[in-house]
Every structure is written in structure tokens, then in C-alpha cells.
Amino acid sequence: MPNYSQTETEPETSLRCSRKRPMEKRTSNLTYDKISETAQYLSSRTSYEPKIGIICGSGLGELAELLENPDIVDYKDIPNFPVSTVAGHRSRLLFGRLEGAIVMVMQGRFHAYEGHSMDKCTMGVRVMKLMGVSTLIVTNAAGGLNPDYRVGDVMLLKDHVNIPGMAGKNPLRGPNDEKFGERFVALNNCYDKKLRKIALSMAKTMNIDKQMHEGVYAYLGGPNYETVAELRMLQHSGVDAVGKV
């Protein structure tokens, strides 16, 4: 008979709780000094002092060819600057005049799906800021979800849905350098209403107002295209167009 005076123990299990690992600290090599070095190098390569920055997305790189008397710098020659590997992105920075305005144009941008970190993807914007740019125009080719849109239409962003950002993929993560700006940034008016009004007015003047819309843009991680279920979810969420980061 068993001896009930002895304490019965549970058999040992091979499953054990592991120690909680400390949270990984995220740091970036793209410090203020590094980006300042890049901006200073570019300033030495041009006499233009741009106030408007333009980032040319897929299929829109030819816009840069319209600049008058441009100064051209290849990305590969710029200190600390990445190089785009996507077809159609020429990896050049141009400074010059466009319709009388002095502009700085990125002929090709960087994507997270190329393997770049989010702060690397947005490095060009910070360089523009340090060079005096105060107005930024970003272009890209996107897929339409709004049934009223047609291929070739133009959509002005009035808001966006940052899907990767919801999962923590945000260029503002990590230690905040106050030289770049404050930690918590309000995005309720990130797409300037005055500029959108000007664009809509110009579209009417050019008789393309039927092809111009204002809408909500969502971006996913890529490089694969979205599934049918993902597109349906985005459409039900009020998204008008979708692309990749």
C-alpha cells in the first residue's frame, strides 16, 4: 500500500518559463551630426537654396528632367546616403528651377522592403529640412480602391493610415533628438489644406478637375501586393488608395 504520509510531488516537466529578456534598445546611426554632414556636403555641390522639396515616386522620375540648369548629384556620391535599388528610380538628387521656383528633387526614393530601416527611408526628408526646405511634395504610383477612381487619376492625400506604424515600424522610434523636433508629433493636419486648395484650383484651370480627387491613403510593408481580404478591409475602413512603404 502506498505511504500517504509522504508528500506526493508533481513530475518534472521539460517546459520551463524562460527569464524575461530586457527590452532591446533601439538606436540609429543617423544622428543629427551625420545628417548635418550630408546636408553640408550637398550645399557644397550647389549654389541653389531650395525652399521646395519634391520626392519622385515610381513612374514620375521624368519630372526631374524639367529642371532648368540643374546641379545633379548621384546618391552613391553622397555621404551616409542610401541608394535606391528599385527599377525606374535613378538615385539622383537635383537642384534647379522648376517653373521659376527653386527646388530640390529626389529622383528615386528608398523603401523598407529593400531592406532599409525606417529612419533610413526618411533620411532624405531630414536632409531637405536642414537645407532650408519648408514645403515638401511627395509623389508615388498607387492602387485605387475607391470605385469612383479611374486609372490615371490623381489623388491628393488628405489623410493616411500607417499600417506598419501600428506595428511599431516608425522612423520616430528610439531616442529623440530635440534638434530634429519634439517627440510627440500631431498629424491632424499633416497634409496642408492650403496647398491642397491650390492644387484643386490648378486642376480646374487645366481642365483636369474630374480626374483630381482628395482621399485617404494607406501603405503596407510590401514588396508583395495586397491580398483580396486586405484590400476589402482597407476599403471598408475608408481607404481610397493603397501602396507600399
Short description:
21% of the residues lie in helices and 22% in strands. The chain is of the alpha/beta class and 245 residues long. The termini are far apart.
Task: Provide an overview of this structure.
It contains six helices and nine strands, in the order H-E-E-E-E-H-H-E-E-E-H-H-E-H-E. It is of the alpha/beta class. The protein folds into two domains: about 110 residues, Nucleoside phosphorylase domain (Rossmann fold, 3-Layer(aba) Sandwich), CATH 3.40.50.1580; about 100 residues, Nucleoside phosphorylase domain (Rossmann fold). Strands 2-3-4-1-5 form a five-stranded mixed β-sheet, with helices on one face. A four-stranded mixed β-sheet has the order 6-9-8-7. Helix 1 packs across helix 3. The N terminus is likely disordered.
Span from first to last CA?
A: 71 Å
Discrete helix count: 6
Beta-strand content: 15-25%
Shape designation: globular
Mean pLDDT rating:
88
What is the total tally of β strands?
A: 9
Q: Uncertain regions: pLDDT < 50 for 5+ in a row?
A: 1-18
CATH superfamily of the largest domain: Nucleoside phosphorylase domain
> Order of strands in the sheet with the most strands?
2-3-4-1-5
The amount of helix comes to 10-25%
Q: Class of the largest domain, according to the CATH hierarchy?
A: Alpha Beta
SS class: alpha/beta
**CATH topology descriptor of the largest domain:** Rossmann fold
Q: Measured on Cα atoms, how large is the radius of gyration?
A: 24 Å
Q: Outline the biggest β-sheet.
A: 5 strands, mixed
Following the backbone from N to C, one meets helices and strands in this order, namely HEEEEHHEEEHHEHE
What is the total number of structural domains?
2
Named CATH architecture of the largest domain: 3-Layer(aba) Sandwich
